[in-house]
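Re-run with default settings, no changes from the original entry. Doing this only to confirm the output is reproducible before filing.
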Amino acid sequence: MTKARRLVAGTVAAGALALSLAGCAQSVDPIERLGRKATEGVQGGQSTRQPKAPASASAAPSGGTGHVAADAHRRWGLAKPLEFAPRPAHRPALPRAGAGRVPVVDRIPVPAGERTVFLTYDDGAERDPEFLRMVADLHLPVSMFLTDSVASAGYGHFEQLRKAGPGSAINNHTLTHPNLRTLSYERQRAEICGQQERLQKRFGTKPRLFRPPFGNYNDDTLRAAKDCGAEALVLWRASMQIHDIRYAEGSGLRPGEIVLAHFRGPDELKGTTLTQMTTRMLRKIQEQGYRIGRLEDYL
């Protein structure tokens, strides 16, 4: 093992405990169980219910068109309208990456005083039509990291989500959701490149961002992601559980926080729906005085 690889492996091991608090298997059943539910609630790859078209009123978030209805927040259990960050004039500088490797980003370096956080959702087993309506009604910019083995039966639903949320984007979360640190470079490359190709073929655009399952990666992951055309490996330091946000450090959000959530349903969330969980997350974001940004505007 080269010195560079030993350094990366050591860094990952040191951060494993913090990352595991918000990983894809945290407080919900494993991705393998979700795979058995991947075809439920979908007809021909499409969600069976359509979102309501939002009426016009307050300004929409970055990248969007139209307006958010004045009473949209009340329909989704929020005490006040959401605030959205405008697209920045310049993208912030990313962490340095080694030659032939993608940079690792776990928090966006927003300008001082800018209280902006970012919404990300992983996997793709749950296709909740209420969540689709919520995203459309509130104009939520959502960054989706999809795993082919659980999301592919419902890619039509995620296409609707991408169109419903202004600036929402579809990104790479591997073909089968393995622990990449246990795989060779060749197998990691197959997982990442394979999903890049499938998502590009299905949605017409090659994903720019990649998230490793469970937050686990090593130097081979960074090289494989680069070779597959990804521009950054995206982690997180805050994760939405069923009722509250869990933090890698401290007791609240920090500027530039990337918040992890999952496309999970009542079976995995102890009776809570994806939409209900998202309402709780948005309330926490508002209570702490933050607005929502579009991740892809900053990366």
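The chain has one domain: 3-92+99-298. The first helix runs from residue 3 to 20.
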